[in-house]
Amino acid sequence: MPDGPASVGALLRAAPPDRLPEVTAEHLRARYAADGIEVLLGDLSLSTLRPVLDPESADGGPLEQRCFGSQQPVLDPRPDGTTRLLLPMTVWGDRLGVLRVQVPGRPAPELTAELCSIAGELAMAVRTADRDTDRYHQARRRQRLTMAAELQWDLLPGRSLDGERFRLAGALEPAYAVYGDHYDWAVTGDLLTLTVLNGQGDGIEAALLTATAVNAMRNARRSGANIVEQAELASDAIYSRHGGNAHVATLLLEVCLTDGTVEAVDAGSPRAMIAHNGDLRTVSLEQQLPLGMFGDTRYEIQKFGLEPADRLLVVSDGVHAAAPGGRVAYGTSSLLTAVRRTRMQRPAEAVGTVLRGLRDYHAGIDPDDDAVIVCLDWLRQTE
């Protein structure tokens, strides 16, 4: 009989993409005499954990949420002498959900670590299988998406990403009805490229506008172009389609993970801010024209730097300029209050804290714009 996490990877690679939870559950029962197995995936807003094996069962509770938030296994001894384990399903820092499994007795640390590895193998397989089955997409949804939201979610690179020298996360709201706001990222070698965009308008037209910009910048980036060339290709693509009647406000950043130097092209409303020891300051950049306003627009790079313990945040105008019911803008002071609450949180938790603060600030008033936040912690390596 195949043993251990490595064999689970082989089993999952041989399984149909929509049967990964069942294959994992069968292995856990046969190898570990496990019971009570459930795969719980975070919904689009990461506010609930949705069951996959038994979709009619309850969402994940406080212990599952604790595991998901802390990214550490949680052991829950049961009155019958068994132990329920809650194990994070994570790929490169991207939190997908929680694997719940009940085993006889109290597991030794070695067994807990082995089961954590199995949860990681399952997470990798589920992320890969998303291209070929709708099962996991359906499980994550509490309601139907708008067409614009469907397009935007398919464009996103993920919701968090960790490396040896950085931690990164992004969030998008309202999750089920977004329009033109978006973020993108890619890490290659010593460079991390971040982009936050806001396509003009509402609904599917705004989403299509943003999709044009994102794919143009990806095309340039994957051809080895720098952020100026990425911005110029995207601007030309939008102008050729809309003739200056539509534009995309964009902030492009290229972070050197070796020394914290950041090159920037500021082409619109998204703002970069740096949090340090409880203070929050806006990065001062000279704003250039949004993408697509004119033909043959040229852009220039500006530079700033990150220091150890700096947290870089980029927010769309749906965050910093939100003024529900005529109140002062959220970015005036309330954003600082929300950011201060995140000091002990990793970026994947911090983005949720800031957006919850934004929801509270609206006090029941429907937002008139979607919102994006990206959070980066630069972890300078010591020699």
What does this structure look like?
The protein has 383 residues and is α+β, with helices and mostly antiparallel strands. It has 2 domains: 4-139, Beta-Lactamase, CATH 3.30.450; 145-378, PPM-type phosphatase domain (Phosphatase 2c, domain 1, 4-Layer Sandwich). The protein has 11 helices and 16 strands. The chain has helices spanning 4-14, 20-32, 62-70, 109-129, 135-140, 147-155, 203-222, 227-242, 317-320, 334-340, 347-362; strands at residues 35-42, 49-51, 74-77, 83-91, 94-103, 160-162, 166-173, 181-188, 191-199, 248-256, 261-267, 271-276, 279-282, 302-305, 311-315, 371-378. The strands form 3 sheets. The protein has a 6-stranded antiparallel beta sheet with strand order 6-7-16-15-12-13. Strand 3 and strand 4 (83-91) form a beta hairpin. Helix 10 (334-340) runs antiparallel to helix 11. The radius of gyration is 22 Å and the shape is globular.
